[in-house]
Specification:
Elements (H helix, E strand, L loop, with lengths): L1 E2 L4 E2 L5 E8 L12 E10 L6 H16 L3 E12 L6 E2 L1 H10 L6 E5 L1 E2 L7 E4 L13 E5 L5 H14 L25 H13 L3 E3 L1
Parallel strand pairs: 4-5, 4-7, 6-8, 7-10
Antiparallel strand pairs: 1-3, 2-3, 3-5, 4-11, 9-10
Helix pairs in contact: 1-3, 3-4
Length: 207
């Protein structure tokens, strides 16, 4: 559910036009979670992303993290009015964007497209792969049209929270290279690393 609307202004021609609170999904099993996740979520005015699609994808992604005793505590969806060049993910341009706005991590950006090569539907930048692009640390970038969107969100959040780019060879594992509706499981070791690294890096809060 979305609530609230707060306009704000950022630097370099980027404006936060609206901020809405996202409540946890009604079916969430957050009461028993050992760790809580707070997210900032961004979309750009003038792209094809709709707030309802984003919220539903997030709601359906969180049960995949709840198997690791991690639940969504709070989230904010912010709509940005920004020059069109910021609407697509590109390492140099997106670094410029994050230098111009204040972002609490972890953060998810829903963009129109990606201009990076190779072009991925989604990309997670943890601390291990942010050495040459520090502004993008602890962020996830998702291009419009990404398949299996809830699975993609959960997969990329695991990368960021675990601070690991590793994938699994198990076709049933969420961290398998290719997403599929049957790739949903996380192992005990994966969950342990996610909680430990997420808490150590300040991305998860112990409840």
């Amino acid at each position: 559910m979305l609530a609230g609307a707060i306009p704000a202004t950022a630097a370099d021609g980027v404006k936060v036009m609206e901020t809405r609170s996202i409540t946890p999904a009604p079916q969430s099993s957050s009461q028993d979670a050992s760790h809580g996740l707070e997210l900032q979520v961004y979309a750009f005015q003038g792209t094809r992303w709709k707030d309802g699609d984003i919220v539903m994808a997030l709601w359906h992604a969180m049960p995949l993290l709840e198997q690791c005793n991690v639940s969504l505590m709070a989230a904010e969806l912010r709509f940005l009015d920004a020059p069109r060049r910021f609407h697509s993910f590109s390492t140099p341009v997106s670094r410029e964007l994050l230098r111009g706005i204040s972002v609490t991590k972890p953060a998810i950006f829903f963009v129109e497209d990606t201009h990076n090569q190779p072009a991925y539907e989604s990309e997670a930048i943890g601390r291990q792969n942010a050495t040459t692009r520090p502004e993008l640390t602890d962020t996830v970038w998702v291009a419009y049209g990404a398949r299996d969107l809830p699975l993609v969100l959960a997969h990329e959040l695991v990368h960021v929270l675990s601070d690991s780019g590793e994938h699994s060879d198990d076709p049933g594992n969420l961290m398998y290279t290719e997403s599929s509706s049957t790739n949903t499981r996380l192992s005990g070791a994966q969950c342990e690393r996610l909680r430990a690294r997420g808490e150590a890096n300040g991305l998860l809060k112990r409840r």
